[in-house]
Design brief:
This protein is of the alpha+beta class. A four-stranded antiparallel sheet has the order 2-5-1-6, covered by helices on one side. A hairpin with a 2-residue loop joins strand 3 and strand 4.
Length: about 100
């Protein structure tokens, strides 16, 4: 097993493409996103009662695997600085183990 970092960004769907640009500028090789819902400082949001991932008013959870922690922290910092004063969202890091480090 090889240890890398996973960046998780949960935010408004309308930001998906802009967050993807930040991820790509940081040199990540890809990302995954899914519809998200939950409860937080800005109230309760349920993925099932809102428009799905294709709707701009939905929330998304974006996950990015990167080989080094410094890059992971840079992505989190850039996303938070660029978007979270005006939009709801959160970022966090998780250590993960992978089988094929050459993909990252």
């Amino acid at each position: 097993m090889h240890h890398i970092s996973k960046v998780v960004v949960i935010t408004e769907r309308i930001l998906l493409e802009r967050v993807a640009e930040v991820i790509e500028r940081a040199g990540a090789t890809g990302y995954t996103y899914v519809a998200a819902g939950g409860r937080g400082a800005r109230g309760k949001r349920t993925a099932s009662s809102r428009a799905q991932v294709s709707g701009l008013d939905a929330n998304v959870k974006i996950e990015v695997l990167v080989s080094d922690r410094a890059r992971a922290e840079a992505i989190c910092d850039a996303v938070a600085a660029e978007f979270f004063d005006d939009y709801s969202g959160i970022t966090y890091l998780e250590p993960v183990e992978i089988l094929r480090p050459s993909k990252f």
